[in-house]
Amino acid sequence: MTERFRKNIVTIQNTTLFIQITGIVKNSRYFKPMTAFENAKTLNEKYNCFLEIFDEGRYPLSSGKLHGMTVAIKDVLALKDARLTCGSKFLENFTSLYSATCVERLQKAGALFIGKTNMDEFAMGSSNENSAYGAVLNPWDITKVPGGSSGGSAVAAASGAVRVALGTDTGGSIRQPAAFTGTVGMKPTYGRISRYGLTAFASSFDTVGTFSKSLEDAALALEVMAGRDEHDATSANVPVEEYSTGLKKDIKGLRIGIPKEYFGEGIESDIREAIEASKIKLEKAGCTLIPISMPHTKYSIAVYYILTTAEASSNLARFDGIRYGKRAKESETLLDTYVKSRSQGFGAEVKRRIMLGTYVLSSGYYDAYYIRAQKVRRLIKEDFTNAFKECDAILTPTTPTTAFKLGDKISDPLAMYLNDIFTVSANIAGAPAISLPIALDNNGLPIGAQLITNDFEETKLFSVAKEIYVELNMQD
Ligand code: GLN
Question: How many angstroms is it from 266 CA to the middle of ligand 1?
C-alpha cells in the first residue's frame, strides 16, 4: 500500500466517523430544539410551578412591541377560556369568561402565553405551601420554599420557562419570592395596572406586577400593562412613561434613604453585607446615602393583617357554593350549602384569614381593630410622604432571611407572617417597590434588595435598580 493511498483511507475513515458522530449528536435529544411549551413541561416536572401549560397554538400570537415574549400568568388572573383556580379546590373546575385587562394588553402586544402558574390559595401565604395543588420547589435548592404567594411565577421566571411571569403583590407576594429565587420582582404603584380580571384578596392593597430575569423585560411589560382602564375605578389616570428609559439614566445626585427601622435584629449577616455592598455601588454612582426614620414601621405587620383579613373576609363571601365553583352535594338547606361548600372548598389558611377578618369587622371590635388600623395606615403613609421629602429612593433588604426550608414555618402562622416585615409597608402606602437580586449567601441562595420610590416614580425606580442589580446564575 503506498503511503498516499493509506493516508486517503485514513481521511475517508475519519470523515465517515465525523459524519456519524455529528449525526448521532444532532439526532440526540440534547440537540433537538425544544419548544417553549416542552421546556415549560420539563421544568414543571421538577418544580411544580405550573397549574396548566397550554397546547402550542391555543392562544395565537399577535405582532407588537412584545412579539414572541414568553409569558406565564399567575392563576389568580383571568385569561378567557382558561381555567382560573386561584390555587384553590373551590375553583378547580372554574373557567374564565373574559381576560384581565393586563393579560389582554400583553396579548395584543404579542406575548406568547405558556401557561398558568401555581400559587398560594387566593394569594395568601409566603411560601407557596398553601396551594391546593402542592408546594412549588425552589430551583436553587429543592428543599427550600420559593416564597409566596406568587411562587409558581417566580420559579417559572427563575428556571427560564418564561421571560416574564405575572404575579400579584398584596403584601410582598412578588418581591419576597423574587428575592428567594434570584429574579427581578416589580410591584408598581397601586392603581398603575388595572385590577380588572384579578380575583380580589384585599382590594385596597392588590397590585399586579412581574417577575423576570432582566430589568428590561420588567420595564417593557409594565409599559404595556400600565394605564387607565374603564373597568377599574381605582386604576390611575396618570400618563404611562417609557419606563425602560430609566435603565439608561444617570443617577448622580440622587439621595438614597436608609431607614433605620429596616436594619434591626433578625437580619442574616450575609444579607446585611450584601446591602452594604449595594450602598457602596450607589455612592460610586454619585448618590448620597441619607439615614432616615420611618417610625411607624413597627405597626406594619399588625395593620396589614388586620386590614387585609377584613377585606378578604368580605371579598371571599362571593364563594358561597352557589355562584362560583364548588357546591357541596349533600347539603339540604341554603345555610347548609354555604357552610359545607366553604368548609370543603377552602384550605386552612384561607379559613384562618376569613375568621380573623370577620372578627375584626364584627360589632364591638370594629372600632378597636379595623378603624384603628385604618388610622395607623395613614400614619405609615405619612412616614413615606415625609421620607420622600428627604430622599428620592429608599433601600432596604427584601427579606430578613434567604429561602427557608419547606415545612419549617407552615405550622407557625406568626413566624410565617413575620417574613413580610419589610414588604408590607409599601402596600400599605401604595408606593412602587422592586426586589433585585444582589448576591448569593454562604449556602449559594439568592439575596434580594428592595428599592421603593414615591407614587408613580417607576422610571426613577428602574434607574436606581440598574446600579445594584447583579445577574445571578444557577448551577443546575
Ligand atoms: N405573604 C403575605 C400574605 O400572606 C402577602 C401575600 C400577597 O402579597 N398576596 O398575606
Answer: 20
